[in-house]
Amino acid sequence: MATLGIETSCDETACAVVEKRKILSNIVSSSVPLHAKYGGVVPEIASRFHIEYINRVTKKALRAAGKTLGDIDLVAVTGAPGLPGCLLTGVSFARALSYSRNIDLININHLHAHIYANFLCKDAALIRFPFIGCVVSGGHTNIFICKSFRDFDIIGRSRDDAMGEAFDKVAKILGIGYPGGPKIERYAKRFRRGTPIKFPRAYLDKGSYDFSLSGVKTAVLYHVKKKKMNRKEIARIAMSFQEAVFDVLTERIKRAAKKFGIKSVLLGGGVISNMRLREKLKCACDKSEVQIFYPPPVLCVDNAAMVAGLGEALNKKWR
Ligand code: KG4
Ligand code: ZN
Hints:
It is built from 11 helices and 10 strands. Strands 3-2-1-4-5 form a 5-stranded mixed beta sheet, with helices on both faces. A 5-stranded mixed beta sheet has the order 8-7-6-9-10. It has helices spanning 32-35, 43-65, 84-101, 110-116, 163-174, 180-190, 214-226, 231-260, 275-286, 297-300, 305-314; strands spanning 2-7, 12-19, 22-30, 72-80, 104-109, 131-136, 141-148, 151-157, 264-268, 291-293. Strand 1 and strand 2 form a beta hairpin. The chain has 2 domains: 2-116 and 300-314, Nucleotidyltransferase, domain 5; 123-294, Nucleotidyltransferase, domain 5. Bound molecules: 5'-O-[(R)-(carboxyoxy)(hydroxy)phosphoryl]adenosine (KG4) and zinc ion. 5'-O-[(R)-(carboxyoxy)(hydroxy)phosphoryl]adenosine is lined by residues 10, 137-139, 164-165, 167-168, 179-182, 185, 269-271, 273-274, 301-302.
């Protein structure tokens, strides 16, 4: 009953084997270094990377799991959302595998898989349905109410930039490199003394769970144009930017949990690796007895174990 997961929606070529919620292997080959000089993902480069690496990543995942294709009962592949050229590589590869070996194939939503990653972690038994699922990555900032693995109801999304994208763009403005998230987090930690900058918090219309990150990004740009830059000022901007965007995210989750009577919040996506965000969410939710779940960093970023895991959970025949 082993499931082979395939993930190629953006800049990671990933393959994993999962069996009864146990991760037997989880191989990720990333094209991130190739995009660094452009300050963001170049779709054409990412697609070509998948074409080049998909075979060897799959072989490596099978070998690491101690399995052959003959042991695989289901192929789960990310079908959407993602960059079309990138998705096409993974989906075509998975279809060919399924057709040639007569293995069942299941199409997986990448965002749902990010949230599902929490069920592959040790505290999974504590998760209570319905729960809030929140994906914060380079491509998405979405909040869902999840009643089952088939029922993800979206209540909030970014109206412009995704949060990770905003981190990457602000890092580019500050000239501190790509990917921007980890760099901004590191600079923010260095800010000890001084007055934070009051960057705008876009709370939008009353009752909304949506996000808008373009205003704060522009505010950073104007601030940088006015000020003389040095390491201390970069740290001040990084910390102030981080607080502004995380304040809004924390408010959204806290309010949604209250409104929908939720006791579990499941997080996913690259930005969730940020320790300050985890700390803020935990602090906000502890007070209302809501439990926060987040996967370890290897399952926060794009990976195929989350795709295989959700595929296994959705495969009716095995229930
Ligand atoms: O989920 P992910 O690996 O890829 C997708 O976008 O699907 O997320 C990558 C994003 C990048 O924008 C990166 O800057 C951001 O996650 N990121 C972070 C941190 N680590 C990665 N953002 C804030 N703080 C971090 N520590
Ligand atoms: Zn992702």
